[in-house]
Amino acid sequence: MSMLGEQADATVGLSGKRLDAAVARGILSKEQADRLAEFWVRQERLEDSDAPISRVDAEEVRFVRGFHDVFIAIGIVIFLFGLTYGLQDLGSMGVIAGIAAGSVWILSEIFARRMRLALPSFLLSLAFTPLFLMTCIGLIAGGDSISVFEGARAGEPVDLDGAYLLILPTLIAIAGAVLHYLRFKVPVGVTGIAGGVLLLVAVLIESVVPGFVVDHVTWFTLVAGLVCFALAMMFDSRDIERVTVNSDKAFWLHLMAAPLIVHSALMLVMGEGEAQSTFYALIVIGLFLGLAFVAILVDRRALLVSGLGYFGFAIATLMTKAEVSEDITLAMTLVLLGCFILLLGSAWRAVRRLVVKPLSDTAVMSFVPAID
């Protein structure tokens, strides 16, 4: 990289810190800061077009800016754990969760809205939605709602009225998650809202067709994962260069979608068959390679990471069928899996150029980052 390119990178880092400070002091809004950062990046590329400036990593997660964030985050976790533990004698899940949710909101006002600390904001946003949902269920639906699906798991019909009890608490919890996101603008909050909506859909289906979701849970989670993936791609398509908070929103949605898709797809493939069979292992490897192709195409590693465990299991199965000892099977599986991750990780850009190049003139490229 040229000296000019190095100076540009240093300027971007320094400007980023100044933007964070301006947002913390209320001089700029978060949206204005994001747009200004995007403008600077594009201008620097135009001004130094002859120098090979490396693009920011497509999955750079901006939620830790220093050990100060980590220190505050540790304090938040300890405080919330101690608070809920100390209130356990109250006996009411709704009251305990409500006090915890209220505390999270107050802490968010301090660390997310006023101080704009990245990691504490992330943890508080992540904690608010489930705590508020538990509050709504406990205070509105009561204890009967907790056992709504227990009959279905035991093979008994689901109580229609019981399932209906969860609709109102879930709606209120979603509204609370939306308000928390609008107030504090933490990207991971979008994932909490999406999770609440998926829960609401499951509750509505169970209310209309008792036992349907429980009996077809694998299909439901697969569809839910695909919906989350589509939503993530919507945010990605708004920020092809991955320089605004839309990229962060997409990252967390991809992270939620990946295990839902991978686990559901492999469970459907396995069915009632023998998980230790050679055929099953080959199918798993084939699916994993397909997921790897999608991950490389959209420049998101989440799908790939979610399937690594199944990929390793498939390799171990094939080695077991070859009558290799257990110790050697374990060692070789870990070595091969590690080599795969290291080789793909170190050559990610080269592999992506090879995969994406045949699609360079298609409409797909309007939704994914360009080849660099």
From TrEMBL:
Residue stretches spanning the membrane: 70-87, 93-112, 119-142, 162-179, 186-205, 217-235, 251-271, 277-298, 303-322, 328-348
Entry keyword set: Membrane, Transmembrane, Transmembrane helix
Protein's name according to its UniProt entry: DUF2157 domain-containing protein
Species annotation: Roseibium polysiphoniae
Taxonomic placement: Bacteria, Pseudomonadati, Pseudomonadota, Alphaproteobacteria, Hyphomicrobiales
